[in-house]
Amino acid sequence: MEFTGQFAQLIVSGITSGCIYAIVAVGFSIIYNSTQVINFAQGEFVMAGAMIAAVLMDKTGPAIALPLAVAGGCALGVVTAMFVLAPLRKASAVTLIIITVGASIMYRGLAQLFWGETAIAVRPFTPVIEDGYVEDRTVRMFGAVVSGQELWVVGVTAVLVLASYLFFRYSLVGQAMRASASNPMGARMCGISVRKMILVSFVIAAGLGAAAGVTVSPVFYAKCNMGTALGLKGFCAAVLGGLGNFGGAIAAGIILGVVESVAGGMLWSDYKDAVAFVILLVILFVRPEGLLMRRKRAA
Amino acid sequence: MMALSNGASDGKRRVLSPVLGLLPYVVFAIGIALAPRFVGDSSIATLIYIGINAILCIGLNMLMGYAGQVSLGHAAFFGLGAYSSAILTVRPIQGPIIPGFAAGVGLLAALVVLISVTRVRGWKFAVGALALLLLTLFGSHARLSGVIPIVAALAVCSAVMAALGLWIRIGWSKCMYSGLTLVVVTVLGAWFLRRVLAAGGTNPWIGIVAGVVLTGLIAYLVGNQVLRLRGHYLAMATLGFGIIVEIVFRQWTDVTGGSSDGIFGIPSIPITSHDSLLASGLGWLNGAALTPQREYFYLVWAVVFVALVVSVNIVRSRVGRAMRAVHGSEVAAESLGVDTERYKIQVFVFSAVLGSIAGSLHAHNAGIGYINPSEFSFMVSVQLLVMVVVGGMASVWGALLGAFVIQLLKNWMLDLDKAHYVVFGIVLKGLDPIVFGATLILVMILLPQGLVRGIADSVAASMRAATRTKKRETESAVGRTD
What we know:
The complex is a heterodimer of chains A (299) and B (482). By secondary structure, chain A is mainly alpha-helical. Chain A has one domain (2-286): ABC transporter involved in vitamin B12 uptake, BtuC (Orthogonal Bundle). Chain A has eleven helices and four strands; from the N terminus they run ααααββββααααααα. Chain A has helices at residues 2-35, 42-60, 62-85, 93-115, 148-170, 172-182, 184-189, 194-220, 226-240, 246-266, 272-286, and strands at 127-130, 133-136, 138-141, 144-147. In chain A, the strands form two sheets. Chain A has a two-stranded antiparallel ribbon with strand order 1-2. In chain A, helix 1 (2-35) crosses helix 9 and helix 2 (42-60) packs across helix 9 (226-240). Chain B has helices spanning 2-38, 41-66, 74-89, 98-118, 122-141, 147-167, 172-199, 204-226, 231-251, 253-256, 258-261, 277-286, 292-316, 318-328, 330-335, 340-363, 378-391, 396-419, 432-446, 451-481, and strands at residues 263-264, 370-371, 422-423, 426-427. The longest helix of chain B has 37 residues, at 2-38. Chains A and B meet through helix 4, helix 9 and helix 11 of A and helix 9, helix 17 and helix 19 of B.
């Protein structure tokens, strides 16, 4: 009984972190689709969201903190897109990698400057105040204790994913973005500004990341160096699911979260963080086109 | 008349060019030799750091600048060298770990042999690797002492691998070599470690060589897999590798001391005994008797000098041309008959080995002799990137300059941290990530060739333009007189 309880607990925490990996992976996919660039600053968007939440949540609550954090994230996305777009015409992959790496550590440094190096506890969305202490509600489910915030994470992820699906499927801008992703030349001929689409894709990816950061900050805390690991794990999920493939990215993110949590909790607790990276390397070595993607026919 | 004078100057240039070509090295060597005479102890410490960074940077520049392959995990190789040296000289690993440790190195060596000799790929490689892993697990539990068990183990391992080779249709005799390597390296490794343990540490030079071997094996294995990836995938894979290695440094406390303790008391490397000719010669250059730190300065910069010469020669050789061809276009290089994969792996291993040597020198640094995992983190890899980018991709001397500038900048920011400047209620502290990040972005946007290279190129271009117009003017003047 105790074993199954522990197992269920690990699955729950795995799904929580998996949701965040999934959103980061979707962000990678959106930007990759429009620019063929892997944005190394993706994790920093999540960090930015968490940091803004850390400031606002105590005073205002989620209804104000979430939109403000998303706005902040979007602004960061615009800045990053400017950096990437500046040399795009003649830039090689190496140049773009270095630019986004530079952006990533710059954001991290700025966060460290303003918020310090320590992890900041963030008030949950639906807190219970008991004897002056702020605590989260908990629910028992399938033999595991699930905190209210973990349910929020899953719910917000679902909403974000659904919204971005609808956006890309039905809205005019979304369709234009898909068009410029699949054929930049053709899209330009139809009067779509590819640069503008790249900008929009960065904004959307950053907004998604920031929203994820806000919702997850009560569970993970807000810390200035959380971005690198989150970005890398999100990239791992994106590759697992096949870069550019939304459904695959989401499934892979959640699978990765669960595998990492179970492996870390049951087998190698010291090396929990390494699990995802080892999976990443193995996937890159064995099937760089992704596990959940059909293998491209040799052209 | 004009043609004649041209010919004469060409001839003169041809006579002069070897001398001119050597001039920078001579100046550099004299500069190294005389530097300690004119600088104080704190500057010597900074110069030692610069030298260590320069070695790292020259290596990474070969990989990034010339071969065009990004590595975001170079600090891992730096760390592997440092920990190998540190563990072998002061902190001999505990007895019970030895068989497993030796077997691990044996497994690495066997895998390298499996890849390089049989050139297997995909599922065949996976089967071979799995077999080697199982043999290693078996071997690390068995107690191998005495000749007969070792011969038996040799026979068993090679027989298993040969059978495997027959079964999956790779050359069975080639496959057998990897089994043999496994046993031989494991046994030798265990013997070596036991001797080190009994002696309470080994000679620093042996530690450096051991670090180079270990790092080379790991770099070959990782590079062999990673370098098939391109661009972003490669960057991510090396980043992931770097972080895994850092996590191992942090968590494997039995061997590395973990993140709180680290390893301390690592001895310096003495290069001379006090009454030798070399010591008195260096003392004469120094202007006073050598302190250990100044002696170490000479050692580090001698290594920098060697690394520089070797790198310049590689760049100018056939291998260097092949590397640049790979950078330009891998497909084109391949179609011209360049074995791109081989060259990429070679340069990856070369730069990893330089990183390992730099790591060992860092570990043995005179008067410090302390390492901990945070010195080999992702941020260090990024700093290396900044050095290469500032110094200019594809310029060996530029790498030197990059190491110089960034180390000075770091020192300056450390002073800034201590000064506690407050601006708008925020203490200016830990600015390095911001400065380095902004540098990377700006340089890449404005001068994607790198700072030094970019400026040099634009100066050269404007000079060329100037001479061209001058020439045209003289030509037109000559035309008019004719």
